[in-house]
């Protein structure tokens, strides 16, 4: 399957939520904490080839996702394969037994909405609030405009890339994009 998406930055979750609902999107999944771990081989063959292997844990379930290299496009476009895993901890142990290791962890609070031929995710991260629109190209363009944005506002970088760009500016320490303990307890 081909994944096509963009991110748009917003000042706050409230502002983003208001814009999403005003654009006619319907709530799909409630706000919950997602914890992601990116895996690679000891020689970093996945990163070097532009690929990613992710284990995502949320609300007691886990997903294994493989993402291929980026394809030329004005949106973030790449091959993606994803499957539900019944026990994320066992999966992590299997991957580690195969010689893989976690090289980046990140957290976000995600709330999802449906509109047009797309899913809209409202992501609250340690580096800011982003709206991620995933779906068909026309739906992404339509929804970006409905949110008051244009192609010049599209953010195509990964959360890791954004974290590396903003970490020092925001005074964050550590190699992973994680909330401080008190953030994990709050909701907005």
SSE succession: EHEHEEEHEEEHHH
Helix content estimate: 25-40%
Largest sheet, described in full?
Answer: 8 strands, antiparallel, barrel
Class of secondary structure makeup: alpha+beta
Overview in brief:
The protein has helices spanning 13-22, 45-48, 88-97, 137-146, 159-170, 181-184, and strands at 2-10, 26-40, 52-58, 61-71, 76-85, 101-115, 118-125, 128-135. By secondary structure, it is of the alpha+beta class.
Report what the structure shows.
By secondary structure, the protein is of the alpha+beta class. The chain has a single domain (2-184), classed as Hypothetical Protein Pfu-838710-001, CATH 2.40.320.10. Helices cover 27% and strands 44% of the residues. It is built from 6 helices and 8 strands; from the N terminus they run E-H-E-H-E-E-E-H-E-E-E-H-H-H. Strands 1-5-4-3-2-6-7-8 form an 8-stranded antiparallel beta barrel. A hairpin with a 2-residue loop joins strand 3 (52-58) and strand 4 (61-71). Residues 182-188 have low confidence and may be disordered.
């Amino acid at each position: 399957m081909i994944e096509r998406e963009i991110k748009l930055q917003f000042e706050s979750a409230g502002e983003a939520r208001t814009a999403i609902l005003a654009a006619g999107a319907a709530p799909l999944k409630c706000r919950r904490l997602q914890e992601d771990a990116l895996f690679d081989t000891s020689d970093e063959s996945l990163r070097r080839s532009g690929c990613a292997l992710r284990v995502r844990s949320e609300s007691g379930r886990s997903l294994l996702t493989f993402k291929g290299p980026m394809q030329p496009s004005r949106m973030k476009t790449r091959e993606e394969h994803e499957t539900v895993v019944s026990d994320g901890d066992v999966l992590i142990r299997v991957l580690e037994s195969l010689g893989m290791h976690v090289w980046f962890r990140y957290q976000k609070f995600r709330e999802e909405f449906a509109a047009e031929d797309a899913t809209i995710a409202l992501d609250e991260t340690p580096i800011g609030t982003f709206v991620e629109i995933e779906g068909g190209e026309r739906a992404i363009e339509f929804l970006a405009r409905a949110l008051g944005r244009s192609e010049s506002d599209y953010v195509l970088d990964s959360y890791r890339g954004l974290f590396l760009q903003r970490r020092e500016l925001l005074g964050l320490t550590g190699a992973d994009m994680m909330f401080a303990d008190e953030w994990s307890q709050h909701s907005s």
